[in-house]
Design goal:
- The complex is a heterodimer of chains A (117) and B (224).
- With 117 residues, chain A is an all-alpha fold.
- Chain A folds into two domains: 1-64; 72-111.
- Chain A is 74% helix and 0% strand.
- In chain A, helix 1 packs across helix 2 (33-46) and helix 1 crosses helix 3.
- The radius of gyration of chain A is 20 Å and the shape is extended.
- Chain A starts with a helix and ends in a 7-residue tail after the last helix.
- Chain B has twelve helices and no strands.
- Chain B has two domains: 1-61; 68-223, no CATH class.
- Chain B has 224 residues and is mostly helical.
- In chain B, 83% of the residues lie in helices and 0% in strands.
- In chain B, helix 7 (85-109) packs antiparallel against helix 8 (114-121) and helix 7 (85-109) packs across helix 11 (171-193).
- Classes of the chains: A mainly alpha (117), B mainly alpha (224).
- Chains A and B meet through helix 1, helix 2, helix 3, helix 4 and helix 5 of A and helix 1, helix 2, helix 3, helix 4 and helix 5 of B.
Chain lengths: 117, 224
């Protein structure tokens, strides 16, 4: 039963990811296919076409370990050693300052729980 | 050899995860630590990134389904999200705009090259979008994707510390900020903090990607 749920869950997630990529490609939208897949999953859950029980194990596992899937892409940074030697410090400062400003502006506007929306 | 590198990535990830739980710090951030260790191993064994590429291709096939899976926390937290939708949308728009302007401004002050400036302007969109946008703006696509990744890692490492320092404790807002500024990698970090943060992070990541790709062509004449 557990295994069956995993098979169904993963197939649905794969299917929706492929569907998202197909939509983006066909209509040349500038959104990642996976984001379209994510929204599709939300809609299918809201309309009860997909039941939470079918995907909770697999989706829970994948989101818990989401960070893992970014590691190989990040390893690709090793090809940019020369850029870091040339512009590493200014680039790092620029990234840090823009990161801090962006985070704080977002947090300030979003506000705290219970504040009027 | 592909299996060897996949296995090694899993092993290093599991190790990094343990360390990050035991000693939580920016430097034990899972993506940062695992990436640093893998690069170190590749360099020490005299290998280039080409060696690792087949393993990357296999692992990133699962990135799509893993991102789709964020639809579940999104569904579970939908009432909370809708109740705070107005401010959240405003936060995503102003957060993305401010990070773009500050990044390009500092890049110009430091006299970084045009390709780097374009890459900086798209850094908070998720990397496939950054890549595509940079191509449209006649920048360097792979450079843009790499700077987006670097921005994601830095945000996942330091974002939680910065937010805590400024007393931002609300899980809704923390996830929103991490997803807006540091896309998927920030969202992955947010998801480890709180399920609600994972949900708002996922929503913010998607909306930032849409907003950035829509607004950047109009900003381009002002920025450059």
């Amino acid at each position: 039963m557990k295994l069956l749920k995993w098979v169904i869950g993963l197939s649905l997630l794969f299917g929706l990811s492929t569907f998202g990529n197909w939509i983006v490609h066909t209509f040349s939208w500038k959104v990642p296919g996976s984001v379209i897949g994510m929204v599709s999953l939300l809609v299918l859950l809201m309309t009860k076409v997909i039941r939470v029980e079918w995907i909770e194990d697999s989706a829970g596992f994948l989101t818990k370990h989401l960070a893992f899937f970014f590691i190989p892409i990040a390893v690709g940074l090793m090809a940019y050693g020369t850029l870091l030697k040339v512009a590493g410090v200014p680039l790092l400062i620029t990234l840090l300052v823009s990161l801090t400003v962006g985070l704080l502006v977002t947090a300030l506007v979003s506000g705290k729980e219970g504040e009027a929306s | 050899m592909t299996f060897f590198w996949i296995g090694l990535t899993v092993l290093i990830y599991a190790l990094s995860r343990r360390l990050s739980v035991k000693w939580a710090s920016p430097f034990t951030n899972v993506v940062f630590l695992s990436t640093a260790l893998l690069i170190l191993i590749l360099l020490l064994s005299g290998q280039s990134y080409d060696t690792y590429e087949p393993a990357r291709d296999v692992i990133t096939t699962l990135l799509g389904p893993a991102t789709v899976a964020l639809g579940l926390p999104l569904y579970r937290n939908l009432p909370t999200l809708l109740a705070r939708a107005k401010r959240a949308l405003g936060a995503i728009v102003l957060g993305s705009l401010s990070t773009i302007f500050v990044a390009v401004l500092f890049g110009k002050l430091f006299e970084l090259t045009n390709h780097v400036l374009i890459a900086l302007s798209v850094k908070s969109a998720t990397s496939p979008i950054a890549l595509e946008l940079a191509r449209q703006l006649e920048g360097d696509a792979t450079l843009a994707a790499s700077i987006a990744v670097a921005c994601g890692i830095l945000g996942a490492m330091l974002g939680p510390v910065i937010l805590t320092a400024f007393r931002v404790t609300d899980p809704f807002t923390r996830g929103l900020a991490l997803g807006t500024i540091s896309h998927g990698i920030g969202t992955a970090q947010a998801a480890t903090e709180h399920p609600l943060s994972g949900a708002t992070g996922g929503a913010a990541m998607g909306l930032t990607a849409i907003f950035t790709s829509f607004v950047l062509p109009f900003l381009y004449p002002i920025l450059f």
